[in-house]
# Entry
Amino acid sequence: MALTVNIYYTGENGNARKFAEEMKASGLVERIRAEEGNLRYEYFLPMDDSETVLLIDAWESEEALDFHHRSPMMEGIAALREKYRLKMRVQKFTEAK
# Structure
């Protein structure tokens, strides 16, 4: 069953955007996109909220997402999230095949 996770990262003083930029510059984004089962990993900037960045993260299965969550990359993501003092709001959607 395919699933999509929307993560809203919110901070202050442009920190959410800085987080997304550092994720990309560090190579983490490309490494995540290369993981088996990843279908989409993209950041978007909401027009009406300059302090939030939306991540759309799609996976082929719950198992692929679970494997990603257990990967060493999660430590890097968590460290950057802490560095920029971000809050998260998560929405999860499943799609039957």
